[in-house]
Amino acid sequence: MDTSTARVVARYRGKYRVKTDKKEYWAEISGKMMHDAVSAADYPAVGDRVNISTLDDDLAIINGIEPRKTLIQRKAAGKDEPQIIAANIDVAFIVQAVDRDYNLNRIERYLALALSGRIKPAIVLNKADLISEEKLNQKISEVKDRFKDTDVIVVSTLDDNKFKDLADKIAGQKTYCLLGSSGVGKSSIINKLLGKNVLETKEISFSTSKGKHTTAHRELFVLENGSSIIDNPGMREVGLVESGEGIGVVFSKITGLAKECRFPDCSHLHEPGCAVLAAVEAGELDRDKYENYLKLKKESDFYSMTRLDKRRKDRSFGKMVNTGIKYKKKR
Length: 331
Hints:
alpha/beta; GTP-binding; GTPase activity; Rossmann fold; five-stranded mixed β-barrel; Ribonucleotide Reductase Protein R1, domain 1; metal-binding; 35% helix
C-alpha cells in the first residue's frame, strides 16, 4: 500500500472523501484510529490534513490526523462534547441575509466562535439587492459601528459589481469557510465563486420565514486561484464551547471596562462600583450588546465548568476502580 498526505474535502456518515495533489479517494478511518478515539474531536473533519494508505485507484484508509492549526467547533446539540465544524481555516465569512436573517447578536455569536479558534472573521451582508439602498446603508452603518475591527463585505450574487469585493478578498493557497443560518445564500455564494452551479439552492420559506436546509454535509471546494472554500449546513443553534478568548476579543470594550471595576471577580450584574454597569447606565455602552455579552459568557463558562466537573468525576471514578482492583488483589 502506498502512503501519502491528503486533505479531507467531504465527510459523510462513516465515510470521507480525501484529496491528494493528484486525485480524490473514498476513505474510511483505520481500526486503530477508531479504537483510540476518545471523542468526536478524534475523528477527521473537513479541512483536516490526514495520513492515508491507498488500497486501489478509488479507496484509501485514513491512519491519522496531522496537527490542526485552527479549528471551528460548537457545542453539539444535547451533548457535553464539542462538534468539529471545520479545521485549518484562515478566514471565516459570517454570512447574514440583509432581507430576513440580519441579527447583530447572532453575528457576535459567530464572531466568538471564529475568534476562539484563532480564525480571522469577516462579515458578509448578502442579498443586498433585496432591500432599498436606504435600508441597506442603515444596516451597513449599524454593523460597522458595532464591529469596528471586523471587515464588512456587502454582496449580491445577482450583481457582479456587488460581488467583486468578496471575490477580491479570496487569496490563493488560503482556506475560507462560510458560516450562517439556513437560507442566507451560502450555496449561491459558492456557486458564484466556482462559476458553475454545483450546489442546490433554495429560497427562504415564506410560510415560516426560516431558511431551508440546502447543504446536507460539509464540503471543501478548490477555486481556480488555488484557494479553498468550505460550505457548511445552516446552523440555527450555535452553542459555544470554551470561548472565553473569543468573547474577550468580540467584547473588548466590556473587558477593558471590567478592569476598572471595584471587585476583580465582578459579575457586572449588581455589584457596587461596576464600571460596566456604569457605562450602560450612562449610555456609553449599548445595552443590547451588554446583555448579549452576559448571555454568551454565561454559556461559555457553564460549558467549561461542566467539562471540568466531568473530568473530576472521571478521575474520581478511576481512583475508585484502581482502589477496588488493589483491594481485590490483596484478598
